[in-house]
Specification:
alpha+beta; Structural Genomics Hypothetical 15.5 Kd Protein In mrcA-pckA Intergenic Region, Chain A; five-stranded antiparallel β-sheet; 5 helices; RNA-binding; stress response; Heat shock protein Hsp15; RNA binding; S4_RNA-bd_sf
């Protein structure tokens, strides 16, 4: 892509496969989940080589450096050549831990409501018989 052409931030984040759709990329920009030098940026911001963005997705937090401009979505193996992932290690580990416990939507084992078997045992212990 020539330097004279302009590339929107939402289109770039979609093209390098940070977001699944361009709409999600634009929504992330609008809600303050994409930052350049600590300040929120809008989806229409022009991307330049050398820019460093902090991007928060549902899965993890990214810190990326733009190494090339990519306007159209390509295979992951090609897309990763257009940015450099400079996310600190501790951030990556922290997000992985949180994702395993908080963002899955599943409850942790042996915590919370009893299973069917445990419920039958409780009812039996309490002297309550099932009525049909």
């Amino acid at each position: 892509m020539a330097d004279k052409e302009k590339l929107r931030l939402d289109k770039y984040l979609w093209a390098i496969r940070i977001f699944k759709t361009r709409t999600l990329a634009a929504a992330a920009c609008d809600t303050g989940k994409v930052k350049l030098l600590g300040t929120n940026v809008k989806a229409a911001k022009t991307v330049s080589i050398g820019d460093e963005y902090e991007v928060k997705t549902e899965a993890r937090k990214w810190v990326i450096k733009v190494t090339g401009l990519l306007a159209s979505r390509q295979a992951y193996s090609e897309a990763i050549k257009y940015y450099l992932d400079i996310t600190p290690e501790e951030e990556g580990d922290k997000m992985k831990f949180e994702a395993a416990t908080f963002h899955t939507g599943k409850r942790r084992s042996k915590i919370g409501r009893p299973t069917k078997k445990q419920r039958r045992e409780i009812d039996g212990f309490m002297g309550e018989e099932e009525e049909e």
